[in-house]
Input
Amino acid sequence: MMTPSVLFLIPSLNYGGAEILLLQQINWLHKNGWHVSLAILSASNDAGLMNQLPLPADHLLVLGGTHSVLNFKALSFGLQQHHRISSFARKHSAESIVAHLPLAHFYGRLVKLRNPGIKLLVYHHSMQYQASPLNSYPKKLFNLLQKALATRADDLTVCVSEAVEANIRENFVVKSPVVLYNAVTFNKIAASDTSGPAADSQGIHLLIPGRLHPAKGHLFFLKIFEQLVGRFAFRLTLEIAGGGNLESELRLFVAQHQLSEIVTITGNLTNNQMLDRICRADFIVVPSLSEGLGIVAIEALMLGKTVVASDAGGLGEVVRDGVNGYLFSAGDPTNCLNQMTKILSQFPGSLLDPDLLRNDYERRFSFEAYIRSFTELLNNKYEHHHAP
Output
């Protein structure tokens, strides 16, 4: 029996949900005897993540582009360089291409047109048309070009949530769509007892984990938090765990509103450091304004922690209000304030059973459950077109 061969495409290898999932996919397939190759479109990649790749040097192609998102220069570079990926795919006898994120979709389509026997899976991770609406003629024109290419080249459209599929379907072409929730690999921290006292045993400690980006709703929730302070007999603290472009703006808000004694911003953390902070919090808050799925919410479930999240995008599929967490309306300050007030007023009764949350993670978001479905996609044996 021939060893199955798959080529992955990704714009760059830096920290993000798509990149972490790609590493999980590659490591498992390589370990289990698949012939795996990877083409990275950009020259700007994280050295730590690159070192986690198990591939031989000749199974890795780095094109050296300067862009990781679709724009005119990236388009021009792709038209000049896609033949290199085609040659790389033929060298490794690739039967399937898995393209993560829109720029890689474009390159994958060009390669598929040159190699029609290859199966092309395009992987959508975000509410991309919500984040970047078709509000200009150049965007609309380029979207029409992509749709024409997708109609000819795509074989399978994989979306990380029902919300992402709806967003893509409304604006683009979907081919044999499959919803497959991203996995979170069980971490040894999850095996420790996370039901002990939080960071502040005299009060309630809230944590917002993840990168600091406007779409993640940090500033929105800081304004809600400021209104919550002083409403309760207990001390309320908030930790914003992560780094990113929004950090200086958040620190300025905290300083200007005299919140420095009860609000902490950590800056960049490793994944284990982030999980440790999740373990120590009472509630995990995910106030995203736009979200494809919500990996930090899944990590909280893995650790048996109660999540309070917005219903943005796929978050409303990860968190089921009153069942495995609590939801509020994305971007709605009144609804968020009312929901937080209710939850905090009922503490500790509002904390959910950690075992129930861990069991939900195991059933829907464990890597073992995910990889079975993913390999079925590659082997043309996948029968269920919607996530559990």
Observations:
- The domain at 188-364 is CATH 3.40.50.2000 (Rossmann fold).
- Residues 190-199 have pLDDT under 50 and may be disordered.
